[in-house]
């Protein structure tokens, strides 16, 4: 069934925001666990800053906050920035809020339970997200966001017609997910690889952290049936055709949805370009700096997919 | 008059079951149930929007858990009266835009029409299907000391509130599941289905599966929740002006992921003047250029029809009994409140002399804005009101203050009487439909008569209760005290046994 262009725009962005909220939650959660496992004698340098790099921001020393005051990039700052401060673009609280306000205007398109799930979550983050600043409560907040995002997927999967709205929702979900996986691989995996020669004593603990941040640890282990190895982790996260957070898998899902939408040739061409670029990075997966650059390249091509989707389905001129 | 209790504080027959349950529950449990409904309303996202309310634009819908109860036989009479009234109103509107027989026959004054702010010359000569213009209306009713129902005003433009009728019932069912199994409470859920069928009937001839859209001004409108709700319940698209376009063929289309798609019926929730910048306000960003052309060509059905508001006017109101007699040759089955029209010298003189006994209303305001209640106004307010009337007499009517009925309402943990009104919704097309009850609004301030949610009013579920089939319907509650049990049983027996 045809979907109103304006609703397509809102559903697409609701899907992206919700996926982003879920992904950032998982990233912060797994990073906290990782740090707990890696005690350090040197307290002068906060290791939390590394997380900001995933969102492409300044991640060491100090920075300017919203009021242009210089602040230390420490745990508190990073958690505020990424989780609890709804004024910060890309924070979990802001993502949930934005997802809600997009879905609030498309309630006639999605199953009613879907709106309730998001509204519920949004009431929770509005009141409770600030408590994520407190380490003891943080996990509860993040787990709730992750669980509710999946609850929503469950509601849609089991009760939504496979119409245009469904396909647009999937485009948003999978594009955001592909983007997030390339960021995690680009920044964190590349950093790890670059230091591989040096004496990082807990190498596999770090790699486990990377996999956990993408909910990939268990499936990775099942698929490789062996110990954790840098190259195979990266290959799993980028090229696996069966793991739903792997970039190649996400691109396949985007293609499947485009098959069900009309007039999708132009958008599909941009997906093909992104996939070719991704596959061509296979050779660089052993070198940290190359990998980082390759991921940035793939991200820029995913950005082109986004523009093509926007032009074709989300703006009135496209019709 | 209290609608649930007699002057000596015993429950009226139809309220006996509710009252004995409230007694059983006790104040703490009742309060707990009130809180549970408030939580439901929050998590279900039932909201209304307040103008210029800063960042938090949607507020939780204010709701009182104690329902209002109206006996079924009394309501059936009201239903007949409303259906009759709307039939006449629609014949009146159709007449005004075509032959103007009622003016020619000297029943309705021509100068009233000339001065009317809601008469749309653009609509003259139009013939909407079935001769119906006001398809959806929400008449405000009040009851006075002896329980008589009066129509206070007819809302024929874009009346809102029906979504809350349905949602209030949903949360009340959760709050008092004990009562729904045993009382014959008329369901309210059928409204959206009836609306959907009415709208479909307005499609251009020959269209088998019409595409229906709800046209909203957008998320900042106070009734946005309702626009969305109705679209959901009817499977219609919720659109804004920018989503629609009128093609060179004078047909209406919407922009979709699949290209342009034809639209056959528009349930518009924006005011006439914003509908079509070509025909009305050129600065309107809410409407669709060319919409009037498409409508007049018969290529799209619009509900309510543009121009229907001409009969939604506190001056026209005063003629309503005459209008009903003129077109239907019947006596009105539901009463009008006596209304003084300030445009007539004699009636204006009376109003100016009796300001403190009357309610003065500007003819073309809604939402309770601009109303002065004489008995509660200060000297300065009355002077200002008199000046406003003299300044623009055509724009003012006055009515005696009706001592509005009350319903017990939970205030700070206690049940206290609060004034209520009632807005039933009436659908008129080939046939008529009236909601079972309607939206009961309650003034939460002690003694206040202002019930609008935009001004701090609350709402209640409204039960139309038919007589029980069996005289023992209300005596099954196990834990009620002996004396209450007896009285409930007596009362239910006294009204029971009538219907098989």
Describe the structure.
The complex is a heterodimer of chains A (319) and B (500). The mean pLDDT of chain A is 88. In chain A, strands 1-2 form a two-stranded antiparallel ribbon. Chain A has helices spanning 5-37, 49-54, 75-84, 92-104, 112-128, 135-159, 164-194, 203-212, 217-224, 230-239, 247-260, 265-280, 288-314, and strands spanning 62-64, 70-72. Chain A is built from 13 helices and two strands. Chain A has two domains: 1-160, no CATH class; 162-319, no CATH class. Chain A is mainly α. Chain A starts with a helix and ends in a 5-residue tail after the last helix. In chain A, helix 4 packs antiparallel against helix 5, helix 5 (112-128) packs antiparallel against helix 6 and helix 7 runs antiparallel to helix 11 (247-260). Chain B contains 15 helices and 24 strands. Chain B has helices spanning 16-43, 72-96, 101-104, 110-115, 162-175, 177-180, 191-201, 224-234, 272-275, 291-296, 314-318, 320-328, 345-353, 379-391, 482-495; strands at 47-49, 58-60, 64-71, 136-143, 149-155, 184-185, 212-215, 237-239, 244-246, 252-256, 259-263, 265-268, 301-303, 335-336, 340-341, 358-362, 372-373, 396-400, 406-411, 414-423, 425-428, 432-434, 439-442, 458-466. The longest helix of chain B has 28 residues, at 16-43. Chain B is of the alpha+beta class.
